[in-house]
Amino acid sequence: MKAVRFYKAGMPLRVEEVDVPRIGVNEVLVKVKAAGICHTDLHFLDGVIAPWKGTLPLTLGHEIAGEVSDTGRGVRRFRKGDRVVVYNGVPCGKCRFCKDGKENLCMDLDQIGFTLDGGYAEFVKTRADTLVKLPNKVSFESGAVLTCGAGATYHALLDIADLKQGEYLMINGFGGLGAVALQIARSMGAKVIAVDVADEKLVEAERLGAVATINAAESNVGQKVKEMTDGFGANVVLELVGREKTMQSALDSLGKTGRMVIVGYTKDQLKATPLHMVTNEWKILASVAYTKKDLEAVVGLAERGKLSPLVSMKVGLEQIEETLQGLREGKILGRAIAQPV
Length: 341
Ligand SMILES: [Zn+2]
Ligand SMILES: [Zn+2]
What we know:
Number of strands: 18
Structural class: alpha/beta
Number of helices: 10
Order of helices and strands: EEEHEEEEHEEEHEHEHEHEHEHEHEHE
Bound molecules: zinc ion
């Protein structure tokens, strides 16, 4: 089968012929129908993160929806032809975080597309307990984006920032995750202010129901957000960019008791003044990945029509590298999807 292989940082991805994975007793072979092309892959290419225990080369791709193609002897819950999405964490199930339902923080975590071969391929194998059934109503394309994209956003907003009905949520950086965050926030009755530097992204935010949008290249974001919220500021800021400048405008926009939750990151430093943190009782938080429960929740939202991720582009395996470069330059509106065959 064809697979997109990562060798090392700074080296282009290679499309190669590899063997179809062999499954074990409790594993499932999934025929990949759609794989989300995620910004995180750029972190590999740029050397910001490295596969920390996997061997290279590695097939990337961690946002996977597909069809069960084969099951191991011990697998009961799934059969050939089932539509599924893949929870890309393969947790140990034994450590204190796994036992506490926080498998995203597992002490011995494997991750498909990070330490194990991923979904930029015709087939991927995974443990059966990482699969969530995908309702017929939800397309494979949406399903793929529901994994890391929506799961991580849901985790950040609900589990970490504790966003509540009626609160103002500022979304800093309105790409694929931003669009999903907006829909999740609206489904629970929060009011969204979208911030980006690209007008077309802000138009999209308005279409999806943002109460206000701000072009950060043209205005003082903090000041605008305060004006829009009767001087109070945002209750929650979802930081999806992680540059020094965006994180500064996030803090400038945060109201008293505000929670800033960081999801997007670069190597930039966060500069917060303790005086401001203390006098405002800010909570500065961070959120990594998502749990299987989060994935089940967002699949449920999608089934009820509350969440439909914006899939703007479909490409073959050969175009993943250039699509990632487009993502780097901020040229992709919503999410791009790879379709292996
Ligand atoms: Zn991702
Ligand atoms: Zn664990």
